[in-house]
Fold this sequence. Notes:
- There is one protein chain.
- The protein has ten helices and two strands.
- The C terminus is likely disordered.
- By secondary structure, the chain is mostly helical.
- Strands 1-2 form a two-stranded antiparallel sheet.
Amino acid sequence: PHPDPLPEYRAREKYDPRAARSCFWPILFGVTTIFLLLENAYWFRSGDGDVFLAVARNMLTHKGYTFNGQPFAIHPPLWPLILAGAMKISSSFAFLKLIPLLSTIGFLAISYWILLRFTTPQRSAVVILLSALCQQVFPQAINFFSDGFFCLVAAAALLLAMQISEGRDAWWRIVAVIALCVVSIGEIGRASCRER
Length: 196
């Protein structure tokens, strides 16, 4: 018999839910506070985020998946579709900025529950807080980049896959993982096809 390659992981599979929740809510509040302090209700230059907004506006005004009058094939279409859908509700920047904000907060919240499979609730909370302060992470919450949303989708798929591997036998988890993976991979494929 081979030794278990992840003995510490197996030992931590049954973490104390009360301790996990007691660290989760304060860290979620902290991350949300940090991101809200960085938010503003106005437009500012953000490179790719501006392109996504322009493509979303073109989709909303029935000009198709275009940028500057040309077919747009550099980025996947799901993020501009989400922004275009949100623009049907309200085109204010304050409202639209809630989408990347909530996506990034959701990604970090799910990441906390993923980290619990490898370390303690306290360490998981510290990692999430430091990640929120990271120069590569917090711009995803305040700009119109697609990364926060796709990190949310990927993290959700990973957490559900981990739960399935731990023996949680709910059919909906399998269906959800497949759907999340299709969203993640399908967007890359559609963008590649459009470039040809």
